[in-house]
Amino acid sequence: MDFEGLVWRYVPRNAHALHLGFILLARGRWNRYAEYGCLYTSLSPEGARAEYAKELRRIGIDAEADQPKDLVSLTVGVARVLDLTDADRRKHFAITLETLTGDAEDDLESCRIVADIARLEGYDAILSPSAALDAGRNLNLYIDGRADHLRLMDGPDRIPLNYEP
What are the structural domain ranges in the chain? Predict the structure, then answer.
């Protein structure tokens, strides 16, 4: 499947919406630390807010104590997207919805294995159920693929996430 539309993510206050400074160093569900990066985005502002809150809980930081962040939108066009919101596609990869959204290390490693395979098969992104928001969906982008398969631009939105403007 292809995807074209608006997605959401959080960045440090006043950082460029496409700030990618940490994606290679991040430990994530859909990437391997220091091997390949993944630009995590949500299909809704609520999804991005939920992902932010979940990450802070995971690392034990209060949102008000965290550095100021902005919620930003991006305009995305991506050619080859693996749709794991589809039950038949999950069956193909022998992965369950519970595994895709679980937080146990085995769940996370299963997602990374799917990401490894998807990248080898030429996918440029994975559309996945959100592990932070019921019925939410995330678009996880691999920006190291073919330049003609991915278009990223600033979106029209910038909203203070955890501070007053």
Answer: 3-149+153-160
Contact assessment for residue 10 and residue 161, using Cβ atoms and an 8 Å cutoff? yes
pTM of the model: 0.92
DSSP secondary structure, the chain, as one string: --EEEEEEEEEETT--TT--TTTTT--BTTBBTTTB--EEEESSHHHHHHHHHHHHHHHT--TTTSPPEEEEEEEEEES-EEETTSHHHHHHTT--HHHHH--SHHHHHHHHHHHHHHHHTT-SEEEEE-SSSTT-EEEEE-TTS-GGGEEEEEEEEEEESSS--
In this predicted structure, what is the pLDDT of residue 145?
76
User: In 91-103, which positions are buried (b, 16+ CB within 10 angstroms) versus exposed (e)?
Assistant: eebebeeebbbbe
pLDDT value of residue 79: 92
- CA 24, 30, 36, 37 dihedral sign is negative
**Are 149 and 156 a contacting pair, CB within 8 Å?**
no
